[in-house]
Amino acid sequence: MTETTPTALWNDSCTTAELVTAIGWGAVGATCNPVIALAAIRSDLPRWVDRIAEIAVERPSASESQIGWQVVEEVSVEAAKLLEPAFTEHAGRNGRLSMQTDPRLHRDAVALLEQAEHFASLAPNVIVKIPATSVGIRAIEEATARGVSINVTVSFTVSQALEAGAAIQRGLERRRAEGEDTSSMGPVVTIMVGRLDDWMKTVVERDDVPIDPAHLEWAGVAAFKRAYEVFRERGYEARLLAAAYRNQLQWTELVGGDVVLSPPFAWQEKFQASGYDPVPRMERPVDRSVVDALLTIPDFVRAYEPGAMAPEEFDDFGATRVTLRQFLEADEALDRIVRDVIVPAP
Questions:
Q1: Model pLDDT for residues 62-77, shown as the tens digit of each residue
Q2: Is residue 2 part of a domain?
Q3: Is 3 inside any structural domain?
Q4: Of 240, 206, 235, residue with least CA distance to 220
Q5: What are residue 281's DSSP bridge partners?
Q6: Residue 126: CATH number of its domain
Q7: Looking at residue 22, what is its pLDDT?
Q8: 41 occurs within a structural domain
Q9: CB proximity list for 13: less than 8 A, separation 6 or greater
Q10: N or C, which end of the chain has less CB nearby within 10 Å?
Q11: Domain tally for the chain?
C-alpha cells in the first residue's frame, strides 16, 4: 500500500515497541493523544513513575497536571525521534509525531494556540492536534499561519473536515503572503471514522431507527469519501486522515487516495496477519442504497452533507461530546498516577 499507492500509513500509538514494529511495516507517522499517552506511560510504568518523582523534585511548585503533561511531552519527543528518518525522506510531509493539545483547553483559542506553538518547538517533526470545535477552528488557522503543522482532531463529519481544511488553507496562504515557506509543512485533517460509526449505532439504538446493522459499518467510510471528493474539488492542501478504526472497511475502502490511514496498532496486526493485498478503492463510491439507508438517520445527514452543520454546532455533535469526555477522563487518570507518586496513599 505505502509503496504502490499515494496512501500513507501512520501508527495510532506512540508506545515504543508498537511504533518500532509499525515502522517496519511501512508506517511514516504516529499519534499521541491523552488516551494514547496514558497507554504508553502504563506500558512502562516503573520507568515513568521514577521520572514523575524526579520532575516533582525538579519542579516543586508544579501541579499534578503540569507534571503529567511534562511526561506526555517526553513520551512524545521519544516517539518523534524514531520518525526522524521518515521526516527527512518525505521532506516534512510525513515522519511526524502528532501531539494533542490539552483537552481542558478546548474552549480557549489563545491557550490552544500557545500550547500548539510550544509543542511545535519540542521537535522539528511534531505535528499538533487541535480539535475541530468552534473555538478550535479559529486556533487552527492562526497556528498554521504561524508555521505550526496541524493535525485536526475530534473531527467526525464532512462539515468539520471542510471547515478545518479551509482554516488550514487560509493559514497557509497568509503565511505565504508574508513571504514564509510552507513547503515543509504537513497538515492533515482527521475524520475519526470509527467514532462516527459508534455514534450512529448509539443514535439508532436510542431512537429505535429501523436500519440494517451492516449499513452502520459504512458511515465513517462514506463520510470520509465524501470529504475527500470535496477536498479535491476545492484544492485544499491538507490531507485527510482516517483514525479510530472499528472494522476492516476503514482500511480496504480508503486505500489509493492521497490520504493518511492511521489504524491503532492492534488493527495493523490484524491487517498484517490477514494476508490481504489491498487494491485502490478510494475512487469507488459507497453503494447508493447503503448511503440512502444511512441518510434516514438525521445525525448522519448532519455528518455527511457538506455544510449541514455550522461551526457553532460542532461542539454539540454527539461524537464530539463523547470523545472530549473520554480525553478529559484520560487527563484525570494521568493526574491520579502523578498524585499516587507525589502523595502516596498511607
A1: 999 999 999 999 999 9
A2: no
A3: no
A4: 240
A5: none
A6: 3.20.20.70
A7: 96
A8: yes
A9: 19, 22, 30, 31, 36, 39, 40, 264, 265
A10: C
A11: 1
Cα(192)–Cα(156) distance, integer angstroms: 5
Residue 328: how many CB atoms within 10 A of its CB?
A: 15
CB-CB contact of 131 with 104 (8 Å) = no
pLDDT in tens, 75-129: 999 999 999 999 999 999 999 999 999 999 999 999 999 999 999 999 999 999 9
- Provide the strand spans (E) within the chain: 8-9, 29-31, 96-100, 126-131, 150-153, 188-192, 239-243, 260-261
Residue 283 lies in a domain: yes
> For 257-286, what is the mean pLDDT?
93
Long-range pairs, 208-217, Cβ under 8 A, ≥24:
209/296, 209/297, 211/293, 211/294, 211/296, 211/297, 212/293, 215/290, 215/293, 215/294, 216/294, 217/246, 217/247, 217/249
Q: Take residue 146 and report the three cell numbers written for it.
A: 504561524
Which of 3-7, 55-59, 134-138, 215-219 is predicted least confidently? 3-7
The Cα–Cα gap between 253 and 41 comes to 33
For residue 316, what are the domain limits?
Answer: 8-342
The CA-CA-CA angle for residues 92, 98, 100, to 5°, reads 140
The grid coordinates of residue 163 equal 471547515
- Name the residue among 187, 13, 168 with its Cα closest to residue 83: 13
Read off the C-alpha cell for 179. 513571504
